[in-house]
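Data deposition worksheet. Section B asks for the primary sequence of the deposited chain exactly as it was used as input, without tags or linkers unless they were present during the calculation. Section C holds the resulting structure in token form. Section D is free text for depositor observations; keep each observation to a single sentence. Incomplete worksheets are returned to the depositor.
Section A, Depositor: J.P.
Section B:
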Amino acid sequence: MSLYKKKLYCIYDGICHLGEGPVWNFLDQKLYWTDIYNKQIWVYDPIIKKCKIFWQGNLMIGGFAFAKFGGIVLCTDKGVYIIRNYIKGISGNQIELLYSIKFSHGEMFNDITVDPMGRIFVGTLDRTCPKGVLFLLEKGKKPKIILGNIGCSNGMTFSLDKRFFLHTDSLSRKITRYDYNIQTGQISNPEVFFHGEENQGLPDGITLDSEGFVWAAFWGNSAVRRINPEGKIVDEIMLPVVQPSSVMFGGKDLKDLYITSSCQGATDLKTGFDANGNFLGGPIYMCHLQIRGRAEWLADF
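Section C:
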């Protein structure tokens, strides 16, 4: 039996070039996401049902996280920054560099997550070769590379018991499960959790529900799918876009699943259509589920 009502709502009918990294801020009860190539962060207020640009600058933000003491950590194409004076949906203009990252040519941050201790796991993709890496960021320490030779580092999450870390490499169509040490943040003993078929598209952004099932956006296949703890697909949501990019639970009861999408590769970036008339994407969607998600942790920086 499907866990979602068939009604799919479009909460933002504009076109994101690369809509990604949705984050539900439980402090102000709003959804935020990044449009990477347009160098923007957007915010959606479900009370008034309105979207607006929250931040715009000269940085491509591959992912961001809200911090315990009121800031926002931005993982960008020019390093890791923090806005320290963020307060309830109003962004400050003072951006501080936390870490300078030496990227290779064509490399950029692509998706992040926060662990239970407030550390940040942030991956990269290299558009010139499949040699992305996964960084571990921890307050007071230098960035540490904990995985290498990744085709396209993407969605990440942690098991309900906090014993395992899940990491997506989109190009290999795999979600890998690692043993996770909550005290150190280290990961070990990789085991393939999910390996998709070519006709299923590429697993992209992921999140976890309250039963320990993974929800994953499948880029190129117009679907978001629910994967059980044994790595089997058990449910899916079909979308009117080819390129859904990521997912996040939100709403007061965490039963609203938000879905970002992208028009990357479109012939017309204003309409989102490719040369064959396919609507690649760009809008943001939401559907009500009959199961709760899990709130994201706040970064400690």
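Section D:
Residues 63 and 111 are 5 Å apart (CA to CA).
The longest strand covers residues 187-195.
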